[in-house]
């Protein structure tokens, strides 16, 4: 049923695991087969620099996840979104016809991960807008505090360039903890690039300014709900510890 | 590399006694059993001998045994044949929901043609409740079909009680004893079954041969028309070597029933204990005691059975997920779901079925490999142990 290449990948799959503090996490579940694929992406600028997976399901799902992660690493987000089914099959040489569904599931998980990444960006955007207003109002009152914070900011920016974990998460920290906005001009430019991609694939991503109510309605049955679960699971890393 | 076959519920090695009995019917006694010449008569004698052997094994008349192409044909015939010949009396059939597809699918076919079919549920050990059966039999009911032992998780049903219930209600009772023959004593007189399915290749016989016991006095429509074979009830040239093999296989299996059962039970219990002790988040499916002596069906939490099966295969160990009949079917096993198992656990089920050739060192080897494979596969899995609290709950329940 499966060829030797697939069996070799099953024995030693690449890219299996978890990325702690991933830029985007996507989950896809098959309602019939109950296969579950979880993709972790680490994105810098608009490039995927690392991708990992965890899969519960058939051999095909495990192997396709492994191959797909390999294919999207060092690719642009746009390329990952339009990942070709045939490219995965070519890597495996062949795949039983009844297992093609696994590839769709992997692609869905990657899509969800990228969507999750953009949702995070969107939240930052909203927060920044709110905080601009807050800062304007409280500018005079908080003038002294703001001066102190600029000192913190310079330290944190250094950390960002050295550690370079994720601009996204560190930015959120900056906003929430330090209530600073003005240091993000460079990042805003990057975000504009990404949002231009979002506009290019306008059907895939909801418009951040209009979709808030829709998102809330969808929460019960779509990936948003899953993402919330993901975040809690991500804090407590999955698959580690219990084996012993 | 060591090769260990642990899929004896799918098919078995042909017994050497059986093979020796069959060989002359390929090369010397190759006539058509319906021909009147010497070759034909010799072949027919072989067929009669096989019939007598089976009749003796299950304690019936030899003219109550009808050879078929296997259990699937026997089951189809029993369901469709009875439905057709008794449809004047009623159009209701009762089967259990854990039957083999060769029972379920004919029932679904009949449903399209105006029959009503009740699929009886099972408890968490896979046993059909007599109360449920009694509750569902009505005036329209013409047939009850419940398997003697399940092919996937090995639970043995209360055949005698079911047969008594159906007898009191005046309903025909068919049982699929494909897994039951050779595993425990089957005496159709004592049990009181009206029809019984036998298959050759599950008990050390050849493939492509089976039989249906039909109690004298039961009118049944043939499934295959077109010949005088099997007393006008099953057309087609008789598979004489196959039938001879089946006869011998049934004879050998029932002769060695006690020795085999004792040995297999020891191996099985040792294996189950080793696996459950050494590997976390595992669960034995089916009845803990009232099960086939060679069957261990174990669910491994957080991972999928197919991956375990294929990785064991690379180590030379052949096992099965669910049943071989549904290989390639990617959905979780219906039988395990019917027993109330969660979908994740049903997906992680692997069936180990032993033969008398398996030794203790083989079992140790399998458990060792299994432990490593399960550990490796669990490192790929996104499921966390918090989702498997049902293990704790079930253990508390026990």
Average pLDDT reading of chain B: 91
Can you tell me the residue ranges of chain B where pLDDT is under 50 for at least 5 consecutive residues?
none
How would you write the strand order of the largest sheet of chain B? 2-8-7-6-5-3-4
In total, the number of domains of chain A comes to 2
User: How many H/I helical runs of chain B?
Assistant: 16
Give Rg of chain B in angstroms.
22 Å
- Ends apart, CA distance between termini of chain A: 33 Å
N-to-C SSE series of chain A? Answer: HEEEHHHHHHHHH
What structural class do helix, strand and pairing data of chain B support?
alpha/beta
Q: Quote the average pLDDT of chain A.
A: 69
Strands of the widest sheet of chain A, in order across it, are 1-2-3
DSSP strand count of chain B = 12
Shape of chain B: globular
**Computed structural class of chain A:** mainly alpha
| Topology-level CATH name of the largest domain in chain B | Aspartate Aminotransferase, domain 2
Largest interface between protein chains, with number of residues from each side: A-B, 32 and 26 residues
Helix percent of chain B reads 40-55%
Termini distance of chain B? 40 Å
Largest sheet of chain A: 3 strands, antiparallel
Please count the beta strands of chain A (DSSP E, at least 2 residues each). Answer: 3
